[in-house]
């Protein structure tokens, strides 16, 4: 083997320092950025629930967080997500999530945003016999995705978490994420990128009915009866709950409201 | 050195991996695929009349879906043009005549190569772009990484971005580079070693005698694929090679940053390049490393030479030397897509060493390759269905990209 790994000066990092706390509560002395003009308000992600209610066999629900309008430094929101899950494997790349040919659709245009949703996960190989979205539909029956390692790897295209969010996904539970995908999920507030502690994708099957208790960092699979601990979403939670970095930044006083 | 670049950009004396800091951005890049989305976010959040934080620090480069009749793709170039005019963006490399790329004096081509050629990559700086391969610019001893539309919209308005300081993996490459290897083989060796998630959230620092001997384009190839290992950024210390490359390309002053002797790394890999062989990444993953000689019986349907990874001048010179040495004609359709206008011109003007004065274009023609096509990202990521050299049915293609 030509390459050998040696650790002359290994710097060890405890797992806590590597949790994804991208958007920590800023201190009062943080610089305020002043762009020239201020726009409209942001709707919190939690209120975007219509796609979850439509399904016949199981009635999914999303409870409103008690702290949706309070300051960013409050305790984690008491939020639950419930519905069928769709299970994928490792290294699901952004080209599988939203193939390049659909990137002419601009996410900030509402009708194109909706169209992006209809193509979510259309790039998955044929080995995935159950389609994520039925042909002709704009949203999915599966508000929760369960995945293996390195979910969202590949391109930086923000269209990836956007397509999932537009299709009605509220959360992904993966073993690990690719960096830019995770960051984009938080910045847009489109989906909760949650991490499991074990390979949940090996123990769940597409169609299983699951509940995510966000405040307790817990995943329950009602079909198998098993429960799993999730890693806390941490400081990314309030950002996603606020609806993304802009909404959060306004709430936190980093940019004028 | 990544930690030190972050420290300077956040006006702190010292930072450690894991810290979240607001850094000042030196250059923000976007292109035709993500630009419209970024602009949408910017206008929605900062207002229709808002102005970008610095019209000289935004570089807008149409390059992805250019030579196509796809209406939305064409519309997207119009959107970034309108915005550039409205904001008086200093660096917008426009294209209006799609039928003849040469009729567009400002048009460059592939964004990451254009950034380097136009002198926008400078040691010690922070460059972010709406493209995963923005990490290419790390070849210049700067921090460069890809971000999404929303993050970029935020930067457009404020000139700042919240980043977590990454820990660094050090790759020490020593030994004289054999003439049958290119930087692409080096990075494929590394990715095959650590996997597509081996460098997730980390900086990949490339040092050693081999690195010091590499040209800027070879260093760019190396850093370009840091993202294929999941890396946050790739980085090569700036040296005389860097400074020479930048001469005449930029008038802005810059201050290189270097790792301290006692800097901490989360892992270190040592590679003796004299022991390596040419490699390929087999379907379907960049970490599915294979020896080229073990794949010689794989039947190909086509070959595509292009992209930010493999479409630079030196990549074509290397390809030309191989074709020259074989003296044969190519057995499958071979597509040549230079990254930028400048690369295109080099194909037709630069003599290939050892060829008796022939240019790449002559060698490609004699070998039966298709003529060099308009510079852009081309078919690398597919693009609209009418993109040149796009594979629209299952085929085996040898791609000189990832």
Automatic annotation (TrEMBL), chain A:
Residues 1-42 are annotated as: Disordered. Pathway: Amino-acid biosynthesis; L-leucine biosynthesis; L-leucine from 3-methyl-2-oxobutanoate: step 2/4. Residues 26-42 have a biased composition (Low complexity). The keyword Lyase applies. Residues 142-189 form the Aconitase A/isopropylmalate dehydratase small subunit swivel domain. Its EC number is 4.2.1.33. Belongs to the LeuD family. LeuD type 2 subfamily. Heterodimer of the large LEUC/IIL1 subunit and the small LEUD (SSU1, SSU2 or SSU3) subunits. This is 3-isopropylmalate dehydratase. It comes from Ambrosia artemisiifolia.
Automatic annotation (TrEMBL), chain B:
Gene3D superfamilies: Aconitase, domain 3. The keyword Iron-sulfur applies. Keywords: Iron, Iron-sulfur, Lyase, Metal-binding. GO terms for biological process: oxoacid metabolic process. Coiled coil: none annotated. It comes from the Eukaryota. It holds the Pfam family Aconitase. One of its GO terms (molecular function) is metal ion binding. InterPro entries: Acnase/IPM_dHydase_lsu_aba_1/3, Acoase/IPM_deHydtase_lsu_aba, Aconitase_4Fe-4S_dom, IPM_dehydratase_rel_enz. This is Aconitase/3-isopropylmalate dehydratase large subunit alpha/beta/alpha domain-containing protein. It comes from Ambrosia artemisiifolia.
């Amino acid at each position: 083997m030509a390459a050998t790994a040696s650790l002359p000066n290994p710097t060890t990092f405890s797992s806590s320092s590597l949790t994804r706390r991208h958007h920590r509560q800023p201190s009062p002395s943080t610089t305020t950025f002043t762009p020239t003009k201020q726009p409209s308000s942001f709707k919190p992600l939690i209120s975007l629930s219509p796609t979850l209610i439509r399904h016949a066999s199981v009635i999914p629900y999303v409870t409103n967080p008690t702290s949706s309008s309070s300051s960013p430094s409050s305790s984690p929101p008491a939020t639950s997500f419930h519905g069928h899950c769709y299970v994928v494997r490792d290294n699901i790349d952004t080209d599988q999530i939203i193939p390049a040919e659909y990137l002419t659709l601009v996410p900030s245009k509402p009708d194109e945003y909706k169209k992006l949703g209809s193509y979510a996960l259309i790039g998955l190989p044929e080995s995935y016999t159950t389609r994520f979205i039925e042909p002709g539909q704009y949203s999915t029956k599966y508000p929760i995705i369960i995945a293996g390692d390195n979910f969202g790897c590949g391109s930086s295209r923000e269209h990836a978490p956007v397509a999932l969010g537009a299709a009605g996904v509220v959360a992904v539970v993966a073993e690990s994420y690719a960096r830019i995908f995770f960051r984009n999920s938080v910045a847009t507030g489109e989906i909760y990128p949650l991490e499991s502690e074990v390979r949940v994708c090996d123990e769940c099957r597409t169609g299983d009915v699951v509940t995510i208790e966000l405040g307790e960092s817990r995943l329950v699979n009602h079909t198998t009866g098993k429960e799993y601990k999730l890693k806390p979403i941490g400081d990314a939670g309030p950002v996603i709950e606020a609806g993304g970095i802009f909404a959060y930044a306004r709430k936190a006083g980093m940019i004028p409201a | 050195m990544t930690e030190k670049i972050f420290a300077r950009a956040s006006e702190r004396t010292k930072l450690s991996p894991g810290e979240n800091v607001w850094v000042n951005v030196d250059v923000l890049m976007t292109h035709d695929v993500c630009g419209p989305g970024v602009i949408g976010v910017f206008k929605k959040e900062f207002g229709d009349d808002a102005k970008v934080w610095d019209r000289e620090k935004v570089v807008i480069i149409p390059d992805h879906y250019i030579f196509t009749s796809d209406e939305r793709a064409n519309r997207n170039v119009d959107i970034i043009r309108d915005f550039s005019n409205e904001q008086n963006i200093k660096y917008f490399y426009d294209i209006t005549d799609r039928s003849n790329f040469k009729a567009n004096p400002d048009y460059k081509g592939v964004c990451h190569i254009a950034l380097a050629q136009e002198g926008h990559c400078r040691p010690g700086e922070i460059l972010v772009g709406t493209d995963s391969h923005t990490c290419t610019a790390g070849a210049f001893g700067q921090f460069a990484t890809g971000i999404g539309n929303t993050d970029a919209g935020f930067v457009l308005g404020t000139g700042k971005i919240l980043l977590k300081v990454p820990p660094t993996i050090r790759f020490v490459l020593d030994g004289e580079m054999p003439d049958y290897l290119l930087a692409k083989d080096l990075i494929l060796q590394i990715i095959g070693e650590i996997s597509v998630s081996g460098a997730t959230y980390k900086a990949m620092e490339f040092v050693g005698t081999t690195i010091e001997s590499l040209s800027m384009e070879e260093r760019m190839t190396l850093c370009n694929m840091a993202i294929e290992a999941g890396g946050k950024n790739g980085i090569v210390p700036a040296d005389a090679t860097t400074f020479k490359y930048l001469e005449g390309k930029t008038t802005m002053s810059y201050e290189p940053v270097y790792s301290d002797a006692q800097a901490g790394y989360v892992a270190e890999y040592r590679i003796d390049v004299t022991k390596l062989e040419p490699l390929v990444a087999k379907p379907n993953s960049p970490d599915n490393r294979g020896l080229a000689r073990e794949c010689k019986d794989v039947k190909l349907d086509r070959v595509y030479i292009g992209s930010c990874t493999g479409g630079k001048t030196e990549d074509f010179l290397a390809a030309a030397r191989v074709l020259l040495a074989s003296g044969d004609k190519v057995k499958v359709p071979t597509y040549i897509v230079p990254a930028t206008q400048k690369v295109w011109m080099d194909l037709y003007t630069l003599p290939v060493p050892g060829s008796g004065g022939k240019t790449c274009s002559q060698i490609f023609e004699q070998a039966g390759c298709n003529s060099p096509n308009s510079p852009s990202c081309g078919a690398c990521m597919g693009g609209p269905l009418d993109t040149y050299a796009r594979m629209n049915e299952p085929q085996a293609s040898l791609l000189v990209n990832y």
